[in-house]
Amino acid sequence: MQERAPDLGRRAAEANAKFLVALVVIVFLAAGTLAYWQGWLFLINFAAWSAGSSVYFYYRDPALLGKRMRAGPAAETEPVQKRIQFFTGIVMVALIVVSALDYRFGWSTVPVWAIILGNLLISAGFLFVVFVLRENTFASATIQVSEDQKVISTGPYALVRHPMYAAVLPLASGIPLALSSLWGLIIVPLIFIGLILRLLDEEGHLRRDLPGYEDYCRKVSYRLFPGLW
Description:
The chain is mainly α. It is built from 8 helices and no strands. Helix 5 packs antiparallel against helix 6.
């Protein structure tokens, strides 16, 4: 059994709490009201998956949880990745803000079934992320290659080289629908662009620094979508 850092649970709980508070502020300030059941449902769904996955990996793979907590532009060591992460972070905030503004000003009408679908897409994205992390204990939130790292080619990695990024797409696509917005969907392609820029740069590092990755790329030719790219 892996040894857990004494304060790992506390740090994970604090990180989840701070993230949730930030989400609450962004969602309801943009919506201009607390009477926004779609926003509350989104927050409950998102927070439950975020906290639940943290608890799961706290017991299953605490080293992985510790690595995943070091995220964002400041945690990156490469200037290119700092810029990409900053861009992606801004776009994610814009996705939520535009969606909540859409609700506030009634720019579009979203039926209840689509709101439920949006929450299901978020859940599916989180579930796939958990599945990927179960398979790859080296999946840091930053671009790095550890000394003991090896190529993972099983599970979802047998289909595409970057299943973690693939999981982000249904999650991001579900956010506008969950927040009762169609206009928010126009932001999703920008997230896709950020993911592509990140994975292309990441592949350069892995090909150079991770033994066996070049052979893996020849074996698994698709990056995100089996049969497409």
